[in-house]
Design a protein that fits this description.
It contains 5 helices and 9 strands; from the N terminus they run ββαααββββββαβα. It has 184 residues and is an alpha+beta fold. The protein folds into 2 domains: 107 residues, Beta-Lactamase, CATH 3.30.450.20; 52 residues, no CATH class. It has a 5-stranded antiparallel beta sheet. It has a two-stranded parallel ribbon with strand order 6-9. Helix 3 packs parallel to helix 5. It binds zinc ion. Zinc ion binds next to helix 5.
Length: 184
């Protein structure tokens, strides 16, 4: 691991309750407009309380089962973008002592970009809902999944008085990739 690589980690028990969180995780939550994750105590809360959609929960459960089943770690890439940065990260789930599981996210690469208003947390929204993949952060437009900038352009969101709401799920290609990672 290179010394500049940031990591954020936590441990869960057999019931998938969080038993500890490292301090960089809290810092990361604060910097990522998720102060609710940094301020409240996460200890004793279910991991699944933080996953926003059913598909993601199912995949997490499959990853957890895989790691518990054969004791080998599983690693999956994901994006954790901010309005001004594309952040390429990796999640590794590995067994820890006494039946605990260690979740460790590490930052692999950051690409700065012009701020994307659609990703700002506090801007007012219309009733329209756009689906965004929770893993690669692409946005569903018709039957395609596009990078957020391309989706903004395609849907001409610049000209709207209010931006649509984002809801999270998983795109077909991330689902396939995850299933392949689980079987490898
Ligand atoms: Zn995806």
């Amino acid at each position: 691991m290179n010394s500049n690589e940031e990591t954020f980690s936590y441990l869960i028990d057999r019931d998938c309750l969080i038993v500890s969180v490292d301090s960089s995780f809290k810092q990361f939550a604060l910097e990522n407009e998720a102060p609710e994750l940094a301020q409240q105590s996460l200890i004793g809360k279910s991991l699944f309380g933080f996953l926003c959609d059913h598909n993601t929960e199912v995949l997490y459960r499959q990853m957890i089962e895989r790691v518990r089943g054969d004791g080998r770690p599983v690693t999956v890439p994901f994006r954790c973008d901010s309005p001004t940065e594309r952040r390429y990260m990796e999640l590794q789930i590995s067994p820890a002592e006494e039946g605990l599981l260690h979740f460790c996210s590490s930052m692999k690469r950051i690409e700065p970009r012009e701020s994307v208003a659609l990703l700002e947390q506090n801007s007012p929204r219309s009733d329209e809902i756009l689906l965004q993949c929770g893993w690669c952060k692409k946005v569903n437009v018709g039957d395609e999944w596009l990078e957020v900038e391309a989706a903004v352009e395609r849907l001409q969101l610049f000209s709207r008085p209010l931006l649509p709401e984002l809801s999270h799920g998983i795109c077909a290609s991330c689902k396939l990739q995850l299933m392949a990672d689980l079987e490898s």
